[in-house]
Specification:
single chain; mainly alpha; AhpD-like; about 70% helix
């Protein structure tokens, strides 16, 4: 059975296919954990419940991250590099024009190459397209996510509610 996000693109399957290709291109040279941290940060800042759930679950279930610690107080849960890339992702979402060369230099000083910085920016910018599309079409996270533990629901539901059964 298709997910709500897939049904949202039934009118434009070519756009959904292009989206999948874009994500593949963005992640081709990017560490999966970094991609998920960036995407989770961007999704939460965009108030995208659906994307927050999907990428928070990947971090927790596939990568073994303590997602409640990351969602609650990531400064205590992550190292300086992870914090910097999540901060940059949020800055892209909120106001990319406010990002300065000094901001990018901070990432370079932490050991990221310009290509790594570009990957973070691309992942955050791509999340803007997808999250905003879903929210503008009133797409809710699938009802199966009603079964999430209460703490996870609290961490993930940052915008639209999860669909009812």
């Amino acid at each position: 059975m298709p997910r709500n996000l897939e049904r949202a693109f039934e009118e434009r399957p070519d756009v959904y296919a292009a989206w999948r290709d874009l994500v593949g291109a963005v992640t081709a040279n990017m560490d999966m954990r970094r991609y998920e941290l960036v995407t989770f940060a961007a999704a939460r800042r965009l108030r995208s419940t659906y994307c927050s759930i999907m990428h928070g679950n990947v971090l927790q279930d596939d990568l073994g991250e303590d997602i409640l610690a990351i969602a609650g107080n990531r400064e205590d849960a992550l190292d300086a590099v992870d914090l910097a890339v999540m901060d940059l992702a949020e800055r892209v979402v909120v106001d990319a024009t406010s990002i300065t060369q000094d901001d990018l230099q901070r990432l370079r000083d932490l050991g990221l190459a310009d290509a790594d910085i570009m990957d973070v920016v691309l992942a955050a910018a791509a999340r803007c397209f997808f999250s905003k599309t879903l929210d503008a079409l009133c797409v809710q996270a699938d009802a199966e996510f009603q079964e999430l533990a209460p703490g996870l629901k609290e961490a993930f539901v940052v915008g639209r509610p999860i669909a009812s059964a």
